[in-house]
Design a protein that fits this description.
Belongs to the ETF beta-subunit/FixA family. Its cofactor is AMP. By secondary structure, this protein is α/β, with parallel strands linked by helices. The protein has a single domain, classed as HUPs (Rossmann fold), CATH 3.40.50. The protein contains 6 helices and 11 strands. The protein has helices spanning about 35-50, 70-80, 95-110, 125-135, 190-195, 235-245; strands at about 1-5, 10, 35, 55-65, 80-85, 110-115, 140-150, 150-160, 160-170, 170-175, 200. The strands form 2 sheets. The chain has a 9-stranded mixed beta sheet, sandwiched between helices. The chain has a two-stranded antiparallel ribbon with strand order 2-3. It is globular and about 65 Å long. The termini are far apart. About 35% of the residues are buried. The model has no long low-confidence stretch (mean pLDDT about 95). It binds adenosine monophosphate. Adenosine monophosphate (AMP) binds near residues 63, 92 and 119.
Length: about 250
Amino acid sequence: MKVLVAVKRVIDYNVKIRVKADHSDVDLTNVKMAMNPFCEIAVEEAVRLKEKGVATEVVAVTIGPKAAQEQLRTALALGADRAIHIQTDERAESLAVAKLLAKVVDEEQPGLVILGKQAIDTDNNQTGQMLAALTNLPQATFASEVVIDGDKVHVTREIDGGLQTIALTLPAIVTTDLRLNEPRYAKLPDIMKAKKKPLDVKTPADYGVEVASKVSLLKVESPAERKGGVKVASVDELIDKLKNEAKVL
Ligand code: AMP
C-alpha cells in the first residue's frame, strides 16, 4: 500500500512571531522555518506503517516556494521514499492546496493519505476535509490511533466528549492529532541519504489548478500585550479586587 503524506513549510513553532511594520503580513525575514508539527506526526505515522510492513512506499508532497524543498528533504530523511514539490510563490489557500492534492491522489492512487489536522501558521484545519470532499474518499480527522486491518483502517479520533473509534474502507484520508505518535529526529546519515532520494518538481499549471488567492489579507496585528499579574494576600482582597477593579462580580 502506498501512503501519501502532505507536509507544509511553516514558521518554526519556537519562533516568536513578528508583524511587519506596515501590518501587511507576518514578517518572515530571517525567520527559521520548519515542517508543520502535525505534518511531522503524519510523516512519522506513514514511516511506522512502512516499518511494520503495512505500507510499501511513502510519498511526501508539498505545495509552496522553492525553499519548501527543505521540508521535503526532512520528510525523506525521516523515512519517506520520494517527494513531489508543487512549486508556487503564491499564497496557496486550503482549497487550492486540496485541489492540487486531489490531482496527486488521482495520479498516485495511494491506499492512505495522511495530513496534519491543521497548519500552525494559518490554523485553518480544513485541507484534509476539503480533500475528502474533492476525492470522495472517507475521512477520519484528529486521529490519535491508526490501525490498518485488511481493506479497512480503524481510527481513534479525539473529539470533544472523549475518544471515538471509526472504521473506514481504504483508500481513505486521515488527519493527525498531537497524541498519535512522537516523531523521531532525523539522523545525520539519513539526512545525507535523503539528498539522493527522488524529488519531482511540478507546477500548479501541470495539474491545471489555479492557485492565485481569492482572499485579500487586509491587516495583521499582534495580540494585545498582557498586563502582569498580582499576588493577593487574602481571599477578601481577591474578592475586593474582582468587585472593584475587574468589576466582574
Ligand atoms: P490547514 O487545513 O491549512 O490547517 O492544513 C492542514 C494540513 O493540510 C497540513 O497539516 C498539511 O498536511 C496539509 N497542507 C496544508 N497546506 C499545505 C501545503 N501548502 N502543502 C502541503 N500540504 C499542506
